[in-house]
Design brief:
MscS_archaea/bacteria_type, 9 strands, four-stranded antiparallel β-sheet, mechanosensitive monoatomic ion channel activity, 3 domains, Alpha-Beta Plaits, Mechanosensitive ion channel-like protein, Helix Hairpins, about 280 residues, transmembrane, SH3 type barrels
């Protein structure tokens, strides 16, 4: 480096031994402090829910490099160097990091909200609008789901906050329905409802704390159409519904009723007064 370059890099004035000593001390101090900063950030993020070890290590390294850069910049300032280039470089690096990690930061912040508000937890079955599955894991980037057909899906945390989230498991029970169409004239609607309700209440897997009941939804000269509603474990709907269909078909046959039994699309939600 020639004399003109040195004069551009350093401000006018003599550099004393104290200047060199202070510059070296701040450089070393920045390096030492950066080690403790990295350890502290790593320990803090390790206790933060939803932050994976890899993400925590990345953030800790960035914090370490920032402290080292500050120490070097302050040290060079004692030698007369302008700190403006360091500030400009720090701003440019900060802007690049913000642009490059914007999605990561959004998902990380969304993950913190999900962890603190607890709208879901591992083991819950949720419906995100696009996917239905059981929650396996919540991390700093996504919620991991396992679908009924064995697929593993990573749903970004930010997407879960922006779109409607249905938790099928939070209440501890879920309601299903079976539609039964019976030939008219064999039983009056009241007696038919009692028969169907009693049959479903005895099926293994149907909850007793939320009573099963039968709704008459249609009557014609040819048939009576009913919907039998019952509650079960949130994850056992398919198996319990299959057992209910078999039980209702057997009960109708035993009572010599010509009937058709099928699983039904759930009717509109119950009103507050109807909820168990």
């Amino acid at each position: 480096m020639d004399g003109s370059a040195l004069s551009d890099f350093f401000a006018s004035g003599d550099i004393t031994g104290w200047d060199l000593l202070l510059a070296a001390l701040f450089g070393v101090a920045g390096w030492v402090v950066s080690i403790f900063v990295k350890r502290g950030v790593t320990a803090l993020l390790a206790r933060t829910p939803g932050v994976s070890p890899a993400v925590g290590l990345l953030i800790a390294r960035i914090a370490k490099y920032i402290v080292i850069l500050l120490g070097v910049g302050i040290g060079l300032s004692f030698l007369g160097a302008s700190v403006q280039p360091f500030i400009a470089i720090a701003i440019i690096v900060g802007v690049i990091l913000v642009l490059a990690m914007r999605g990561v930061a959004d998902n990380f912040a969304a993950g913190v909200i999900l962890q603190s508000r607890h709208p879901l937890k591992p083991g819950d079955e949720i419906d995100t609008g696009d996917y239905v599955g059981t929650v396996l894991e919540l991390n700093g980037r996504s919620v991991v789901l396992r679908t009924a057909d064995g697929r593993t899906i990573h749903v970004p945390n930010g997407q879960l906050l922006q779109e409607p989230l249905v938790n099928h498991s939070q209440a501890g029970a879920r309601r299903s329905e079976v539609e039964v169409r019976v030939e008219a004239g064999r039983l009056d609607p009241g007696a038919l409802g009692e028969l169907l309700t009693a049959t479903v209440a005895g099926v293994d897997g149907v909850h007793s704390r939320e009573a099963a009941h039968t709704l008459i939804v249609g009557i014609s000269p040819q048939r009576i159409t009913t919907r039998v509603q019952y509650w079960h474990h949130p994850l056992h709907g398919v198996a319990v519904t299959s057992a209910v269909v078999l039980a209702l078909a057997a009960a109708c046959e035993e009572n010599t009723l010509t009937a058709s039994v099928t699983s039904a699309v759930p009717s509109p939600p119950l009103t507050t007064a109807e909820l168990p």
